[in-house]
Amino acid sequence: MNLSNGVSGQNRNDAISSREDTKRLMKPSTPTRKLQPPKPENAITIAVSSRVLFNMEREQQIYERQGMEEYLKYQLEHESEPFSPGPAFSFVKALEAVNSRLRELYPQSEELFDVVLVTNNHAYVGLRLIHTINHHHLLIERFCMTGGNSPIGYLKAYHTNLYLSADSAKVREALQEGIAAATMFTQEKMKEVSDIQLRVAFDGDAVLFSDESERIFKAHGLDKFFEHEKAHENKPLDHGPLKGFLEVLGKLQRKFFHKGLRMDCPIRTYLVTARSAASSGTRALKTLRSWGLEIDEALFLAGAPKGPMLEKIRPHIFFDDQMFHVEGAAELGTVACHVPYGIAQRLADK
Amino acid sequence: MLLSSTNQEEEDDEVASKGGSELFAVRRATFLTIFLFSSVTAVTFRVFFTRLRRQRVDREAEMVSTVANVDVKQKDADHALVVAISCSAVLEDADDGDVHRVGVAFPLLQALQSVNRHLVEANSSESLLFDVLLITTDERRQRQSARIVSSTKHYGLEVSRFCFSDGEDFVESLLENQVQLFLSTEPEEVALVWQRGVPSSLLGHQTWSSPSEQLRVLLCGDDVIAAAAAESAQRFWSQLGAMRRRFGVLGSPVSVAVMTAHGGRRGFADALATLRSCGLNADEAHCLAGAPRGPILELLRPHVLLGGGLR
Predict the structure, then answer these.
(1) Residue range B152-170: average pLDDT?
(2) In principle, which of A122, A308, B275, B305 could form an S-S bond with B280, CB 3.0–4.6 Å?
């Protein structure tokens, strides 16, 4: 491979001036406040891949159709062009907004969101990513460019609480390692969301809860499902992959509550489930209560489509284990991501 | 002189001056004798010491010796990347027997050889290869030089040269051999060589667990800007970069990683840009911004770790 970069063939002056050019591009456009990122073990670490933070559709197509070398060449040629926002962009912006509120109220605390860019990309692409981060005034300081190696080890090293990626294989691997993770997709439509309140919506079964009840539904049908749930109303469901993430959100919410911010808390959580309020919903709520977790709004749709409801809520992110619901939400402009966990995946694979 | 002074004083009182001039003559004679004596002595001493110094130089010259390994094809020193490894890191002392045990640098050496193998496979007349030199300053080892050479042969190590050097001059012998990278298990040696401008890396127990199929080099991004002032660092990065470019993006037998431990993305971007301007593009890049580096280093498993910020 011979990429036309570096000093070979150029004289020293060219090398120096190109370095200066790159440095100029790297200067952030906002005055940099010296904010030290929190220690990973204290922070709530959100790892995002480059393709979910930014829109890299064109580059991805070049990679898939023409291969790695053309892809890298393209990236280098367009290094000074910032990417446009991807599906996780507004979520990350909202996390930063929550952080600034937390810093105001608890200036000494390290219990903050810490966003780490974890990408399989080579360091070649690093400068374009950093330039884009500067351009959009994002506050990301931690980077992990694995150059093709697996990111899983690094996710663990950073005590990652949530991993968002466009690569479903990596997301599955993370879930298997006990890390909350979801696959995000580029969406044509992304409705405007709040920039002062972080809103996170969760499906119930196989996301917050385990897939045990869903198995019954899939095996024996809806009636059996209702019967079973009613009978076991007081038995808490087992936990699902995103339970831990709801837990840390709750921890931060309580910090705001202690400062009197209950009504206009900068974090709001939603349960959007196909369960029905009349029957199966009770078990869900009781389970949450047994875990000591609160959810701000619980929406029991009794099987109705989730899209319209989510459009009203306008969450920054919605987690569901079934692609049917993810696609339905995305069609109406909600940023929805897929949690490839549980019985629904095996049936989908068939 | 004596005569002229005597002549001048002849018109004066002869009797009175006779006694004074005699004293003067004695004084002059003594002075001359002492002068002549000391001159002769000085010359003698100087001759003696010169001979002594020459002997010492001869002895010093004997203490630094570089032996070429005839079993290994010698590299073109102008184009090769010369790597000197301290002998004790490669071959550990065995209590008895003809052959040493392998040391922590063994996987590293295998990785260097793997890179060379791939380079030559791609281009049989490739001159940008790793040129490995074993250096020892241990007097005891110097006496075991034959055993070191035979151990090297036993393990099939492609060492071009062996350098047996006196403790004081080992840095000089590194410079004479155009060494661009020095590796040792001794922190003092590494610091000394680094001070003289040669990129050097400390080897330790973790080097054992690095893979032998891929050479992994880790550069400390925090030091890159400062180090870039040195010609030797630029040359090393440029050669390493050129070597890396001989291979494809994936599946390369040599992998370069950059890690900034402190500071944010600005310093990180500067480090990447600086290395790129010297012709070196990293594969992996990590910006820790103060996060603990232990877990990350464990995942990176570098053979070579360059930069003070990582120690």
Answers:
(1) 85
(2) B275
